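input
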Amino acid sequence: MRGLVVALAGGLASSSVVYLITLTCLSVRRRTPIRLMAFLQDAHRLGLLRQTGAVYQFRHIDLQKRLAALGTSPSTRHAVRERSNRGRHA
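output
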């Protein structure tokens, strides 16, 4: 976090510098792959993501909901799992 403050204070706040600092911080905390673009390209090639311009989108709504629930509280994860299971049995 200090690196981000130093970079912004030093006037190095170009989008690529901010991207690299953010990617590094997230990678160190194991919140994203170190080689993020390679990961996204592989997921696209395997059919998990679709690319619309510069944006990647999940092809499967169940996968999107499950991954989104990982960053939430246990009760929210349970509710997402229940809704997902109900949709399959309907």
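quick obs: The chain has a mean pLDDT of 76.
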